[in-house]
Write a structure and sequence with these properties.
By secondary structure, the protein is of the alpha+beta class. The protein is built from one helix and five strands, in the order H-E-E-E-E-E. It has a five-stranded antiparallel sheet, with no helix packed on it.
Length: about 70
């Protein structure tokens, strides 16, 4: 009886894996090519952001990207 229990415990220990696969999806990026005329420049923690339409944007080489501040 004891060897059967020992074998079954060892089988359970070595047959299960602790590794899991995590699937991530890329974040949606909103890119604006040109800022509107009535934007405001806001500095938050020393960084420059552009504010219009209730959202903060960061300037990149391709345009403006929505960011959370």
């Amino acid at each position: 009886m004891r060897p059967i229990i020992l074998c079954s415990v060892l089988l359970l220990l070595f047959s299960t894996s602790c590794a899991t696969r995590v699937k991530t999806t890329p974040a949606k990026v909103i890119l604006i090519k040109k800022a509107p005329k009535h934007y405001k420049i806001v500095k938050v923690k020393g960084k420059r952001y552009y504010f219009w339409n209730g959202k903060h944007y960061r300037k990149t080489s391709k345009g403006y990207v929505v960011v959370r501040v």
